[in-house]
Design a protein that fits this description.
With about 200 residues, the protein is mainly α. It has 10 helices and no strands.
């Protein structure tokens, strides 16, 4: 489970989520999901925002299912598809409706910068953590020792090149999607390439 600083929730739901994540996702995406959780949790903690670590972990673990071959949809944007898949699985595993809905909302909104201001810290925490890992946004606000520990436990191992390829393909296949708009209007792939990490 990692060192004390990297302890993550351990419940029947989180174990089921991890099993689904690992079974359907390449290693680079699995590690990204874990890093997103720890970075998001750290930023919420620094901001003094109490949060449900269990809910945040479920959202982080399941947030990129729509980018996998197992769950990709030819028409739906990956965040929308992934949110639906996550909600369906959580309900099947016995999660309550409120928790499953919160995880769905976090995943569906994790490409929208406004989600960082969501009143639900678990929803905001997902995009905050993902922004650190994908773009380096907020990295300076995460303690250096924790960053080092997270990167050691869950190495990037070529993640930047991997996610650029995946998102480029997603944007090309779904030109009306949010990620396609980010690629066109924000040079999103250039921003990913410029993130302050050494892969």
């Amino acid at each position: 489970m990692g060192t004390a600083a990297l302890t993550r929730p351990d419940t029947a739901l989180t174990r089921a989520a991890e099993d689904l994540l690992v079974a359907s996702s390449p290693p680079a995406l699995v590690a990204h999901c874990y890093r997103s959780y720890f970075f998001g949790s750290a930023l919420l903690g620094k901001a003094g925002r109490d949060h449900d670590a269990h809910a945040l972990f479920l959202a982080a673990a399941l947030h990129d299912l729509g980018l996998t071959a197992a769950w990709d949809d030819p028409a739906q944007p990956f965040e929308v598809r992934g949110a639906e898949v996550a909600q369906e699985h959580l309900l099947r595993w016995g999660a309550d409706v409120e928790l499953a809905g919160m995880v769905r909302d976090a995943i569906a909104g994790h490409l929208d910068p406004a989600t960082a201001g969501d009143r639900r810290p678990e929803v905001a925490g997902l995009i905050l953590g993902a922004l650190v890992d994908v773009l380096g946004v907020g990295l300076a606000d995460v303690p250096t020792a924790l960053v080092d520990e997270v990167l050691t436990a869950y190495p990037r191992a070529g993640f930047t090149a991997f996610i650029i390829d995946v998102l480029r393909a997603e944007a090309a296949a779904k030109p009306a999607s949010t990620i396609a708009a980010h690629v066109r209007n924000l040079d999103f792939l250039g921003l990913v390439a410029a993130a302050p990490f050494t892969d």
